[in-house]
Design brief:
globular, alpha/beta, Rossmann fold, GMP Synthetase, Chain A, domain 3, 10 helices, single chain, 5-stranded mixed beta sheet
Length: about 475
């Protein structure tokens, strides 16, 4: 399916789609800007979209969907070496990027963005392929998630339904659009004919809240780290009369803060909705209805409309009993087509057929609400971004450091035999963008290993 909300955004006419510090863009104007950008590219081309929370970035994204051009969403702060690696692997025909992203000349420009024609021919791509997003944080992996037009439409419709997004809503940006949580907020409000307030201010800055109040924002979304900081800043004491609801995803918030925010918002007559998802599921897989957020604090909730969740044991059998732990498996039309690690993979079709083994270990209570208790694989989330611990080890190994990495939510611990704690931290911050306050480097004499050379992570806690 190629038809989606993006094909019909002009139906909202003069309603305001995007609000910036300097102007407001109607849906009619946004559709024209989008088409003008895409008209400078050939249909079914592959394009690197370097994302910012700005009009040309969002317009480009919509224009590419409307003309069946396939974008790869990249952060504007992407590491140069990673960018060059992706360029050589996927060889896009075009790059749509800010003027200052590269010195290469552009063939078409709009509002500080330009089209660069790379000289590569577009690859053979599956007809259903709509979008490619990164999945392993910023650690340098070339692995991309392949999403279809049907994935995007189905997940966006589902989120609009359970959040009750309506044309009067005004969402303010808190995350980059290359992150699927940030992208889902953009898409749901565009589908509903609502407005999006574009800002690149941090949610902790006074100017962010000035922008929030000035434009009458009704909602925002944030990852756990943001809420932990906002809690320290007494967020619940703020007077925000226009606010209708807030959402959380991007990692485990913690039962105590979930409960506190749920109670605080309820007392104000507003909603707090906790969600769970991943890039592989386009965005969302489950949510806690606002009326249950206090009672089910710590839960990831129930499956989104159109989706289904089950738990499986180590034998692959479905777990029927409550409170029994197993791997969470999700079923739904928003499950990705599969991964891509090479240009040739872009021609592949649907490899998962709507079934996603999440790698999260969970349990289900008597009311059918799910709770994450751990991870099957070695991933952690830092400020909402998924980090592969094995890739961190590989990255540091290439620099000559022997390491063993462990961690938890917003905390990365690196054990190393090198007496170079500061150099490791500095390198990792520069290379990946991980905040240095989340990194702890510990010097040890020897990395514990078994007879086959595998690291004994369980023994690291003894150091």
């Amino acid at each position: 399916m190629r038809f989606g909300y993006w094909d019909n955004i002009e139906c909202y006419g003069d309603r305001i789609a995007l609000i910036t510090e300097n102007e407001s863009i109607s849906y009619k104007s946004l559709s024209e800007i989008s088409d003008n950008i895409a008209d400078n590219m050939t249909e079914r081309a592959l394009v690197f979209l370097v994302c910012r929370n700005r009009v040309p970035s969002i317009a480009g994204f919509l224009g590419f969907l409307r003309k069946h051009i396939v974008p790869v969403l990249l952060n504007s702060t992407i590491d140069k070496e990673l960018y060059e690696n992706l360029m050589q692997i996927y060889r896009p025909q075009y790059v749509w990027c800010p003027d200052n992203f590269t010195n290469e000349p552009g063939e078409y420009g709009y509002d500080g963005y330009k089209i660069i024609k790379t000289g590569f021919e577009s690859p053979e791509m599956n007809d259903d392929l709509a979008l490619l997003v990164m999945t392993s944080g910023s650690t340098g992996s070339p692995k991309l998630v392949r999403l279809s037009y049907h994935n995007l439409q189905a997940n966006t419709e589902s989120i609009v339904q359970f959040l009750d997004v309506n044309p009067n809503d005004r969402a303010i940006t808190t995350m980059p659009m290359n992150y699927v949580y940030g992208l889902s907020i953009l898409q749901t409000h565009l589908m509903a004919g609502a407005s999006i307030i574009l800002t690149e201010r941090l949610i902790f800055e006074r100017n962010f809240w000035n922008c929030f109040s000035k434009n009458g924002a009704t909602t925002f979304g944030a990852v756990p780290y943001f809420y932990r900081v906002l809690d320290k800043l007494s967020f619940l004491n703020q007077n925000l009369p226009s606010l209708r609801y807030i959402t959380q995803a991007g990692g485990k918030l913690g039962k105590e803060l979930h409960y506190k925010l749920g109670c605080g918002m309820l007392e104000k007559g507003k909603k707090f909705i906790v969600m769970y998802g991943s890039s592989e599921a386009t965005a969302r897989m489950s949510y806690v209805p606002s009326e249950m957020t206090v009672e089910k604090a710590g839960s990831i909730g129930i499956a989104i409309p159109g989706g289904r969740i089950e738990l499986i044991d180590s034998n692959g059998d479905v777990i029927k009993e409550s409170e029994k732990i197993g791997e969470l498996v999700y079923y739904g039309p928003n499950v990705m087509l599969g991964y891509a690690t090479s240009r040739e993979d872009l021609s592949k079709g649907d490899e998962l057929l709507g079934r996603l083994e999440t790698g999260d270990i969970a349990k289900r209570d008597d009311d059918g609400y799910y709770y994450i208790v751990g991870r099957k694989n070695r991933f952690i989330k830092i400020f909402g971004n998924r980090i592969n611990l094995s890739e961190i080890e590989e990255l540091l190994g290439k620099k000559g450091y022997e390491t063993a990495c462990v961690g938890e939510e917003d905390k990365l611990i690196i054990y190393t035999t090198s007496d170079a704690e500061k150099r490791i931290t500095d390198f990792l911050c520069k290379k990946t963008g991980i905040d240095r306050t989340t990194i702890t480097v510990i010097h040890i004499e020897k990395i514990p290993r078994n007879q086959s050379g595998k690291i004994l992570y369980s023994e690291l806690a003894d150091f």
